[in-house]
Amino acid sequence: GGVFGEIGGVSQDNIARLHSDGSLDATFDPASGFNQRVNAVAVQPDGKILVGGLFTVFDYVWGGDQISVNGIARLHTDGSLDTTFQIGTGFSGGSGIGQRRIHKIIVQHDGKILIGGHFGNFNGDTTLLLTRLNSDGSIDNTFNANANFSPAIDGYYGQVYSIKLLPNGKIMIGGNYGNTNSLAIGVDRLNADGSLDAT
Predict the structure, then answer these.
(1) Are 122 and 130 in contact (CB under 8 A)?
(2) What is the pLDDT of residue 79?
(3) Contact 28, 78 (CB under 8 A)
(4) Is residue 4 helix, strand or coil?
């Protein structure tokens, strides 16, 4: 994933799959791809591929399906869009956010999906910089990390760039965000429900 329009002389927008020798895997066909940058890719145990970034449309070239996918999508192993992954309106900005984007995707062992980036809403629900989705694309209401973040610079919350799922289920995050919980800015350990691990 990234920002590109072709690979090996073949037109392919912002996502491709390569063989182990670096050549293009032509069996992976994401139609005309994504209309903007792909920042994050995560493969589920079943082989489906979660894709996050700055994009808003899949198969966006004139004559394509023009499917709205604000910030996140899931592809089948052949590159086609998995329409069972229902994100509604997807990710958007909000007060203190600006242009929304996804930086990191982690698939948990239970199939739930941790997502970090620069966003304030998911499908109409307020969720700041870090959220968790169920495997069907709906928001996981048992997870809420909003209380961990505060505006950092000039009223903006900043961004979560890195997520690490620990063996005990706790979550390490890093970024340039404002932190409401401690003197540290930009690194925290959270409990599995998104609350701060005060230890």
Answers:
(1) no
(2) 97
(3) yes
(4) coil
Cβ-contact 120, 126 below 8 angstroms? yes
pTM of the model: 0.93
DSSP letter string over 22-58? Answer: S-B-TT---TT-BSS-EEEEEE-TTS-EEEEES--EE
7 Cβ partners below 8 Å, 6+ apart? 16, 18, 24
* Amino acid, single-letter form, for residue 19: H
* Helix and strand counts by DSSP (H, E) for the chain: 0, 18
Dist CA 117 CA 6 (whole Å): 26
CA-CA distance, 194 to 191, in Å (whole number)?
A: 5
Q: Predicted confidence band at 185 (pLDDT cuts at 50, 70, 90)? A: low
Measured in whole angstroms, the distance separating CA 56 from the mean position of its chain's CA atoms is: 12
Residue 189: both structure tokens together: 């350990």
